[in-house]
Amino acid sequence: MDQDGPETEVGLAEFMERPLGPWGVLQIAAGTGLSVYAVWAGVLMPGFRRVPLKLQVPYLPASRTQVRNVMALLKGRSGGFVDLGSGDGRIVLQAHSHGFHPAVGYELNPWLLRLSRFNAWRAGHYGQVSYLKKDLWKVSLADCKNVSVFLAPSVLPLLQVKLVAELPDGAVVIAGRFPFPDWTPCKVEGEGVDQAWAYYIQAQRGGPERGGSGGGRAPDTHSGPHPAGGPLLLRVVSKLQ
Ligand SMILES: C[S@@+](CC[C@H](N)C(=O)[O-])C[C@H]1O[C@@H](n2cnc3c(N)ncnc32)[C@H](O)[C@@H]1O
């Protein structure tokens, strides 16, 4: 077997002592950048390749109190429920337990989707809730009566546009941790990081508010919901790409 002789040791010592130089610095920077990107794309944000960077929101689970606040704001309502960016599916599961049907979560991260289905199975609700691998910016919300979102403040202005364009009159949106910047909530629950805000979509369109169940529709005060995206949102998202 080859043994490292004194020549090899001298070579290594020379290499270690040699100044890095611009090329070396560039190589280290590129290597570090690649590693960071690999962790971001492969571990933290898998499934987000097609989502513009500015719209990528990492996973952070809602606290128990936050989930309780979301459910408190939905009290008295019924019908379908959607969590936009459902993470490990905890809010969808709670909505199902509170009688919302269908209860659906849209999520892009395949690991979180697996975890959601496992959690549903563990809670005895497998097959009764849906976790779908869909980009929340591309799904149509035209049939959603009860919507919850816990996303980064940076994407909320754009999400306002999508929600106003697509949701039916009578829909209620609950925002967890971060409120919508330009909307007026009809109710607020909790405080600090667990706070949640409820909004009647019709009030954000300038129409009359509607309480009660998520069933029926109030008289139309706008031209009706658009299919996924709506023209304005599609223009904005395509500019980000
Ligand atoms: C802050 S976490 C909230 C998770 C969950 N709603 C909760 O409250 O525990 C945001 C989630 O949205 C997901 N997400 C972000 N952008 C998305 C997109 N364009 N389509 C689907 N899911 C998305 C992320 O993967 C992440 O799991």
TrEMBL record:
Coiled-coil regions listed in the entry: none
InterPro entries documented for this protein: FAM173A/B (IPR026170), SAM-dependent_MTases_sf (IPR029063)
Protein name, as recorded: Adenine nucleotide translocase lysine methyltransferase
SUPFAM superfamilies per UniProt: S-adenosyl-L-methionine-dependent methyltransferases (SSF53335)
GO term, biological process aspect, one: regulation of mitochondrial ATP synthesis coupled proton transport
Top-level taxonomic group: Eukaryota
GO cellular component, one term: mitochondrion
Keyword tags: Membrane, Methyltransferase, S-adenosyl-L-methionine, Transferase, Transmembrane, Transmembrane helix
Transmembrane segments: 20-44
Positions of the UniProt region annotated as Disordered: 207-231
One Gene Ontology MF term: protein-lysine N-methyltransferase activity
Species for this entry: Aldrovandia affinis
Similarity comment: family membership: Belongs to the ANT/ATPSC lysine N-methyltransferase family.
